[in-house]
Amino acid sequence: MELGSDDFLPPPECPVFEPSWAEFRDPLGYIAKIRPIAEKSGICKIRPPADWQPPFAVEVDNFRFTPRIQRLNELEAQTRVKLNYLDQIAKFWEIQGSSLKIPNVERRILDLYSLSKIVVEEGGYETICKDRRWARVAQRLNYPPGKNIGSLLRSHYERIVYPYEMYQSGANLVQCNTRPFDNEEKDKEYKPHSIPLRQSVQPSKFNSYGRRAKRLQPDPEPTEEDIEKNPELKKLQIYGAGPKMMGLGLMAKDKTLRKKDKEGPECPPTVVVKEELGGDVKMESASPKTFLEGKEELSHSPEPCTKMTMRLRRNHSNAQFIESYVCRMCSRGDEDDKLLLCDGCDDNYHIFCLLPPLPEIPKGVWRCPKCVMAECKRPPEAFGFEQATREYTLQSFGEMADSFKADYFNMPVHMVPTELVEKEFWRLVNSIEEDVTVEYGADIHSKEFGSGFPVSDSKRHLTPEEEEYATSGWNLNVMPVLEQSVLCHINADISGMKVPWLYVGMVFSAFCWHIEDHWSYSINYLHWGEPKTWYGVPSLAAEHLEEVMKKLTPELFDSQPDLLHQLVTLMNPNTLMSHGVPVVRTNQCAGEFVITFPRAYHSGFNQGYNFAEAVNFCTADWLPAGRQCIEHYRRLRRYCVFSHEELICKMAACPEKLDLNLAAAVHKEMFIMVQEERRLRKALLEKGITEAEREAFELLPDDERQCIKCKTTCFLSALACYDCPDGLVCLSHINDLCKCSSSRQYLRYRYTLDELPAMLHKLKVRAESFDTWANKVRMALEVEDGRKRSLEELRALESEARERRFPNSELLQRLKNCLSEAEACVSRALGLVSGQEAGPNRVAGLQMTLAELRDFLGQMNNLPCAMHQIGGVKGILEQVEAYQTEAREALVSQPSSPGLLQSLLERGQQLGVEVPEAQQLQRQVEQARWLDEVKRTLAPSAQRGTLAIMRGLLVAGANVAPSPAVDKAQAELQELLTIAERWEEKAHLCLEARQKHPPATLEAIIHEAENIPVHLPNIQSLKEALAKARAWIADVDEIQNGDHYPCLDDLEGLVAVGRDLPVGLEELRQLELQVLTAHSWREKASKTFLKKNSCYTLLEIVAFKEGEQKEKEGILQLRRTNSAKPSPLASLTTASSTASICVCGQVPAGVGALQCDLCQDWFHGRCVTVPRLLGSQRPGLTSSPLLAWWEWDTKFLCPLCMRSRRPRLETILALLVALQRLPVRLPEGEALQCLTERAISWQGRARQVLASEEVTALLGRLAELRQRLQAESKPEESLTYSSDGGEGTGNMPKVQGLLENGDSVTSPEKVATEEGSGKRDLELLSSVLPQLTGPVLELPEATRAPLEELMMEGDLLEVTLDENHSIWQLLQAGQPPDLERVHTLLELEKAERHGNRTRGRALERRRRKKVDRGGEADDPAREELEPKRVRSSGPEAEEVQEEEELEEETGGEVPPVPFPTNGSPSTQEDQDGLEPVLEAGSDTLGPFSTLTSRLLMSCPQQPSRQQL
């Protein structure tokens, strides 16, 4: 769809008001406030406060309504005139037997109405043809020049319009007397606020829409047969399509048109001739159907003939009847074959006498010019809106409305601009070509369907929020009946005026130009939906608008004089504005009010689907307009909605209930009404009517008391007739009642002429009570009689205004202001007097100045009321003035004593009034106080003040009155403060600086700062720091110069304290060096003794737990306890409370269990570090024979007994030598010295025992035995060599070499090459076991016991001594070989070798892969980047690291080592980590049976490798 491009210029916007909450609370008051501005525009818009949002109270599901149908181009007045003209001219041609088809000129429909009107304005058809001005006609119709359009317009005018105009003017009639139509009051019977009659009509039986649509279609072309049958058609072919000259009787062969003619008539009823039995011809009205049948009958006659001929054939015997048929034009009856008989009135005409003449007798129905003119001049039907046939709900109507708008504009409804809708609306309204129909749910009764606002009734319970809106004055159900509203005095619920109407709109649905009934106010609220566009005209221009519309469309107002009261006519605002009518517009959005003022014309349309509610209301200022409206209605003979006289009298009957403004307005109206009633009743007496009776008109229905002449509703009086009881008239139309005698007429009255003035007087009293009161108030406020009223009298006047509800006038406001001011003065005076009595206890802030006191006294004197408190105020003023004089004298006589000034100041404070001299006194006193405080602060004997005190004095000095003394004191204070702050800053730098200053420097700073008479916190801190430094130095000197070396803990404490001091100390560096050296020695000793990851400290290892004797007793007790435990090697060993517990937390059982040689407890061989048989030969004895089994290293000490690395005594002695060079005492050093002394003592005793004759002999035997075994082994070696066929050495030398370098077994590089030899070595040792015999020595008990005791004491020492090993060999040789232990050690070593072999292979594969990838294994740069810890740990640590990496790469698939080896550092360290921490320093050792349990409690239990 292409939208119209006609430009519509929107009128200016109307005023928009946004009241505050305070203004919004009084609706009618706010409307009265904005009336002077808004009334000039006719309408205005009000936006409520943002949070005023009433809930929508309509029951949506039950809301059903039937809308009205609106055809947009019939709404506009000028467009409707054009459409009516087209209807009449179409009817004219239809009567002539042709259907009207409007031609197109320059691609647009020819406006026949404008063409006809312009031709008349240019002088008429003949004048235009004579002057050849058809081109000017085309120009005025806005056709382009130069296309010979004038000739074409002339042709169309001659064919279509000119015949119709001739008939309208009667030029073709000699004597044409048409029957008049009775239309005197046809359209004046207006029933306001009645839906069936307001804006609506019943659908006409002759629907013009079908005809109008067909007029715009192309003409059906006549067929060749038609042209051949009718010779006239051949002549007129040059004129083209359209109606031909009348009389041709031609109808195109259009089946559609013929069918429609058969279905129903298209012309109004006409007149036909009927034959009666007696032969008389009678005229009567025939139905359209009869006319149609006759038309069809004649049009299908077989041959052309006149009715005269037919009638003559039927009535050939009646000669008199034949003579009566004469032509109405020439009055002759000759040439009857050319005489036509009218089918409407039976008049006769010669075909050559007609204008224009007819060439031949026409076929079908023919009407004479008189009948055609009468039919065409029939007035049109009253226009109104039809009711739709469908009933809607809100939802269904909304869906229809939104769908229509979206389809029309081809976009979502919310995206269509309001300006576009407005322009399109006025384009459609002004178009005669486009027929757009919409529906409008207008004037829906809220009483029946429910209001959109909450209503307080008994139907349903309201929430508190709904209750608030239900009682709001802006609720349209409440506003008409507010106290200030006139309509609240009307009892009846007038729908639309007192009871709101609802409006459900869609796009383009419109409300036409109108003013409200009785010219009342109206208010419209848009609940929700799309905007509503309004146009308004102020009341001053109402008559101008009516004149313009009557001038532009006189045809409408001729048939409907009260057309504007029917709400069915629009006119484009641009048209009105072009004629000088002021028009404004606005878009009312949801939640906004629009108010129309009295007699303000307004119209508008909806932008889309919305829901609005409207109602009327009347205020006091409306009353004159309401009276003028009644006179206007009387002239128009229009019905009233209510009686204006009744409303005035009802309000006058109860004047005390009226608002004062309303009472004054009613009094003016009542006075005018009474004067008019006197005049009318006097005229009635002059006519001679003397009869009268009282009538309660308010009890009669309105239709029984309406004037039959002007339709006014009577109330005060009416004239009636005894003989004509059905009617009455108002006293303005006493001559129009009836023709009866005046004696039969009588007056019906409501009040006598004596009662009316009484009512008027009551109104006057009510209205003038305000004037009386105002005179009293004016006299009291202006003190016209010279007497001031008391406060009580003024309060009485104010109470009277409140009780009588006087308006809030300027005078009342002055009275209230005067009362407020007087009461404030009384309160202030009482406060002044009571404050003077209170003295120093007076509330602060209530004092007034002397000038204010004088002004206050003047204010009290100027008030128009008498106050007895004024005497007290005068007395206070006199006291203050006397004090002022005394203070001035004291200030002038300087120097005054401070005591005198202080006493004067205290007296002034008791007055309660601020005197200027008191301020000067205060400054003098403050100055003296400040100087005294400065003097005390700076006095040498005074306690030193802080910097804050100094700054406070300076700040206080700035507020003191200046003087030379003050300036000097301030300068001294400022200088002192500057110096003090400088020294404080210097001290702060010394305290916070990174580079510490020596004590001498700090002492100098402190000494210089001592001369400043100010307390300096930083200097004090520096002094304290210096004192601490001196005390620290004294402590250092005392320690250094003492008899003994200081302990390490004391030195560390001194170092910590010295580091925290902000003083540079030379002694601190020496102490730090000594502490560092001591820590270095302790670390070296720890590395010597402690195993890796050991859970013991150095002090726990080397310190004595208790005395040596007690230690021996404890170990003996522990050995006895452990020996009593069942042996794990026994077959029936089970877990019990006395069984041994391994470090893994389980009971050792079966093969693989070892017993500690010191504590005699049992352990798993795989859980502890065990001796290695292949590495048992010591380096000095490389030639030991294999069968010397007592020299094998089978000695096993558990982790609890062997807690450290047990360094050799020579190493410990070197540590002690280094300790002697330290000037520090260490607890570890003293403990180590004790340990060394004990070891040396044991070594001396051991050497003494070994040097005894018995032991020396035993040692000699062992040496001989060893030599003999060695000698016996050489032939076996050579034999083995020769038998093996080897080249260098036999198996035994291989084993011997293996024993000499047993540690190489763990080297990963040699695992692959020595895999076979290692296996053979273990097999060889296993084969030797059966050959072992013993004991090889016989040890007497006297010799064995001392050796075993020495052996036990040596095992308790954490020192490695050679004597311990010699004693071990003697004891071993003196007993049989422990084959079970040797076997166990071999099995453990086999398992270890198997695991090493598996790991070695995996490591070798990994190294090969590295070489294949680029030789990463031998990359020196990579080795350089390795951690120092890994490189320093040697190849063994590297092997462990590679094994860990291997396990990560292979996902843990490398088989674990089942038994640890003695040479593996990793396994050694793992077992060292399991050693428990033994508590040191306990007084008693306790039974050693709990040592294992202590181990389990102290160290976390780890699962064995088998469990892992």
Question: Descriptors for this entry?
Answer:
disordered N terminus, 4-stranded antiparallel β-sheet, 1508 residues, 9-stranded mixed β-sheet, single chain, 55 helices, alpha+beta
Topology:
Blueprint: E1 16-17, H1 21-24, H2 27-38, E2 43-46, E3 64-65, E4 68-71, H3 72-75, H4 77-95, E5 104-105, E6 108-109, H5 112-121, H6 125-131, H7 134-140, H8 149-169, H9 208-215, H10 224-229, H11 231-235, H12 255-263, E7 271-275, E8 281-285, H13 288-299, H14 307-314, H15 319-323, E9 339-341, E10 348-350, H16 369-376, E11 386-387, E12 392-393, H17 394-409, H18 418-429, E13 437-445, H19 446-449, H20 464-470, E14 501-505, E15 510-514, E16 521-529, E17 532-537, H21 542-552, H22 554-559, H23 573-578, E18 584-588, E19 593-596, E20 601-606, E21 610-617, H24 623-636, H25 644-653, H26 660-687, E22 692-694, E23 717-721, E24 728-729, E25 745-749, H27 755-782, E26 789-790, H28 791-803, H29 810-838, E27 848-849, H30 850-862, E28 865-866, H31 870-892, H32 898-911, E29 913-914, H33 916-938, E30 945-946, H34 947-958, H35 964-992, H36 999-1009, E31 1014-1015, H37 1017-1040, H38 1048-1060, H39 1066-1089, H40 1098-1102, H41 1108-1123, E32 1153-1155, E33 1162-1164, H42 1209-1220, H43 1227-1250, H44 1253-1284, H45 1291-1300, H46 1308-1311, H47 1315-1328, ...
Parallel strand pairs: 1-2, 22-25, 26-28, 27-29, 30-31
Antiparallel strand pairs: 2-19, 3-12, 4-11, 4-13, 5-6, 7-8, 9-10, 13-14, 14-21, 15-20, 16-19, 16-21, 17-18, 17-20, 23-24, 23-25, 32-33
Helix pairs in contact: 4-16, 7-8, 25-26, 26-27, 27-28, 27-29, 28-29, 30-31, 31-32, 31-33, 32-33, 33-35, 34-35, 35-37, 36-37, 38-39, 39-42, 42-43, 43-48, 43-49, 45-47, 47-50, 48-49, 50-53
